[in-house]
Structures are given as structure tokens and as C-alpha cells.
Amino acid sequence: MALEDLAVLTPEKAAIRDKMVHWYEVSAGLVFNKHTCVQGWKDFTSSTAEGCADYHAVFSLLDLMGMVSSPWAHEDFYKGALWTASHDRQGARVLISGLATPSMADIVLEATNPEAKIDVLDVCPTPLLTCQKVFKPEQVERMKFIQRDALVFDGEGVQYDAITTDAFLTRFPEEGRLKVLRKWVKMLKPDGRAVTTWRIGGKQGQKGYGDADDQRIFMENLEKRVRDWGIPMSTFSEMQTIFGLAKAYAEKMHSYSGQTVEQIKTFMKQCFGDVRIEESGWVYDVVLRKYARIIAYDPIKD
């Protein structure tokens, strides 16, 4: 959906607004709000000295408004790949390897066989608890929540039909990225697959997205979206928190992306025999970007 198309609040987008406000309120009010993502979002610890719940809450707003890199930008890709991975498979199991908001879990729940089990892994308890609170009881029954670091989690004997996550690998430098990938290979069934995305091009090891003008326009777009969508905010301090964390995202978010499609494919082929990549259209994330949509088959076992 084009950014300018989001300005008109249709009934469909009103439903999205109500969902994002609910996710925001749940995350912001979590009992875990004294926890900080020191192992995850290191760049945000100064902004979240009281805990990381505000960060995850704000990211839900940015995510569903189409303001940041999000699995919703690749919704059809994920749903198609995960439907194929889980349907007609008895006892199918999918791992979500890292998430900041419930978005990826929402997509996986809809895409997979209703009998499929879903394990949700993150180093931080905040998004895990948010998922438990925002989804229906019958959806939560399908899910297992695991608070562990993706760098060390090895499945504890479970074998998965699919492992999925959105633009997660580029949160790690190359050594860590390869370590995560090898953990995935260990956890996948021989006919399992990894389904993910990876930002193409740009500066490798980038800290902060775009230049000062891009970041200013991003904040203007956010203010306009909040106004146009009628997003209720109860206090001035709440608004300041939202805009402050959005500004921190644009200025501080650290990504190890920047590779070409061929470089991405070469990296993935260290661990998978068959790597298929399609290029996305433009995705707004402070600046316009394109992503590699990756399905990796034939995990190379030791």
C-alpha cells in the first residue's frame, strides 16, 4: 500500500487503527515494563531506561501504519510460503525466530494449517507477553512462547517444517548472522525451509536511516498519520514518548544489511542447498528500500 493511500481512513484502515491502538495499549501496560532489551535493541536503552515496553508499543503503531520495515509489506509472500510449508503436513510446526510486535505471529496464525503448532522465540519477554494478551485463547493454544536468544536456541530437540522471521538476520554482524543460520539448519526437518526477508543495498553496517531530511520527513509523515487516523493518545507525555522513540528509530537503528541479491544468495547457500529469492517492490522505512524475499530449502546438515 502506498504511503499516500494510508491518509484516507476507510473502514478497513479503521479496523487496523483499532488493532494497533489495542496492541499499543497492551504493550505499554505490561508488567514487564522494567525489563530492557539490552540483548536486543541496544541502541534504545537510553530511551527506555524505565523498560522496553514503550519501545515495543510504539513500534506496533509504526508497524501497522506502514511507517517502518514490517512483515505486512511482504504479507502475500509470507502467507504463500507458510501455507505451502504447513498444509497437508500432519503435526506441522513453525518457529518465529524473533519479533518486535505481534505482526509476524498474526500473519503466521492466518497462513498456517489450523492444526499447526507455532513456537515464538524472542530474547525479550515484552513481545511474547503482548502476543499472549492480544490473540484469542484458541490462537494462543497453538503457540508456545520461548524467551531465549536466537544465537543459542537450538530447538531443544524440536524439528520444524518452517522457520520464519522478518528482516531479522541483518540485526547481526556476519559472524552472528551465520551462527543464527546454522541454528536454523539444525532445527529444520530435512525437507523444511527458512522464510525471511533481507534489505537490499544501502550502506553496510548502517546506523540511522536516511539523512536529516529523510528523518524530518519521516517525523512529519508520522504526525500526519496519527492525526489523519484519529489515533487516541491520552496525555502529552504519551505523545512525546511516541515521537521521541520514532525519532530514535530513524536516527539510531543499526542494520548490517546493504548486500546485493547475489551476495545474499551466496551467504544463504553456506547453509542451504537451494535458495530462491525474489525482489520486493519499494517499502517505506524512513527512506524507500527494496527487500530480498527468501525461501531457503535443503538445509545442509553436519
UniProtKB/TrEMBL annotation:
Q: Which InterPro entries match?
A: Methyltransf_25, SAM-dependent_MTases_sf
Highest taxon above the source species: Bacteria
List the Pfam families: Methyltransf_25 (PF13649)
Q: Which residues form the Methyltransferase domain?
A: 108-192
Q: What is this protein called?
A: Methyltransferase domain-containing protein
Question: Taxonomically, what lineage is the organism?
Answer: Bacteria, Candidatus Beckwithiibacteriota
